[in-house]
Description:
The protein is of the alpha/beta class. Helices cover 40% and strands 26% of the residues. It is built from 9 helices and 10 strands. It has helices spanning 40-48, 69-74, 91-101, 106-119, 135-149, 165-180, 192-198, 216-220, 225-234; strands at 2-11, 14-24, 29-34, 55-60, 63-64, 76-79, 153-157, 184-188, 201-206, 209-215. Strand 9 and strand 10 form a beta hairpin. Helix 4 runs antiparallel to helix 5 (135-149). It is globular. The structure holds adenosine-5'-triphosphate.
Amino acid sequence: MLKINNLTKNYGQKIAVNDISLEVLPGQITAFIGHNGAGKTTTLKAIAGIIDFDKGEIFVNGYNVRTEGLKAKSVIGYLPDNPDMYDALKGIDYLNFIADVFKVDKQIREQRIKQYGERLKIYGDLGAPINTYSHGMKQKLAILSLLVHKPKLYLFDEPFVGLDPVTSHEFKEIMKEECQNGSAIFYSTHVLEVAEKLCNSVVIIKDGKIVGQGTMEEITKDKSLENVFLELEKN
Ligand code: ATP
């Protein structure tokens, strides 16, 4: 579902992402972990087509994100670390706008908005303008806006930040369901305990380079993910 070959991204003299290659298969939830400034957000933005890159190739569902950007974007759902939404719109108007962009049928969008809106406990607030929402409510709305168009590849940048424990739990269940239905999830996180339980694979990035990747079993063996990570950070 996602294939990255030798991706490099520089910001001026700074090499933010340095020749990384990885793959995320349908059905996989892959955690992308690394220290602050390791290159996670940069990688996610490059996959989502938000920033250009210097070297390498990225394929989403077989589409080259550079040369077939629109096709790639049509199957991607990207949740940034700080979602920017049209604040003056009501929640429901924002969802309808996103559903229009992704050409989601009226009946299907209504059913998804109700189903996932209720599960994420935001359905009752959709009639209010976004500028009256709390941080967590905005996060829920941004997640719901992805579930409205059901992407094949979900890209989440620290998705649990701001969510209350009940919503976090429900969101994890939804993530698992989406992957059981053939989507793939690639998400950055600093919460290693959750990643270890939730994900079947993991990619570890340090100073722009991948220093570990594989299934969760391969990477952790008899150690916790936290211990594996701390050891890699020491070297
Ligand atoms: P965090 O866990 O703190 O969110 P991250 O792994 O997502 O970090 P990135 O945001 O990808 O890290 O940043 C990687 C490197 O690129 C950092 O050194 C950062 O300072 C640099 N960087 C990121 N964005 C820019 C930019 N717009 N201009 C210049 N340098 C940038």
